[in-house]
Amino acid sequence: MIKNDEESLARQYGVKSYPTFFILKHGEKKPIKYEGDVFTYKMLFEFINIYSETFVFKGTTDEPVESAASKPWLT
Q1: Bridge partners of 2?
Q2: Around Cβ 69, how many Cβ atoms within 10 Å?
Q3: What is the DSSP letter of 64?
Q4: For residue 13, is it within any domain?
Q5: In angstroms, rounded to a whole number, what is the distance separating the alpha carbons of residues 43 and 30?
Q6: In whole angstroms, what is the distance from residue 15 CA to residue 30 CA?
Q7: What residues make up the domain containing 56?
Q8: Is 72 or 34 the better-scoring residue by pLDDT?
């Protein structure tokens, strides 16, 4: 996550608005940018989950996924 006080990272990745969230994968030259407007734990978890090596599936119901991301006060 790049914030407005991190000028060198902002220049390196061409950041124009803050905060900006990227995923940097080993072996890939271009970072993957989060295009969403909402920076909640749930939204970032769903974005990161797509690119993770171990995908976390939701159950067949609409119950939220239990993870550390759903309990920010524990981290």
Answers
A1: 20
A2: 20
A3: P
A4: yes
A5: 22
A6: 13
A7: 7-74
A8: 34
Which tokens hold the place of 72?
Answer: 């920010």
Give kind and range of the element (H or E) at residue 45. helix 41-51
Instruction: Name which of 55, 7, 15, 54 is nearest 31 in CA terms.
Output: 15
Instruction: Show Cβ contacts of residue 64 under 8 Å, excluding neighbours closer than 6 positions.
Output: 42, 70
Is the pLDDT score of 61 beyond 70? Answer: no
Residue 20: inside a domain, yes or no?
A: yes
Could you report the per-residue pLDDT of 13-54, keeping only the tens digit for each?
899 888 889 888 888 888 899 998 888 989 998 888 888 766
- Whether residue 1 is contained in a domain is answered as no
User: What's 10's DSSP letter?
Assistant: H
Asked if omega into 64 is within 30° of 0 (cis), the reply is no
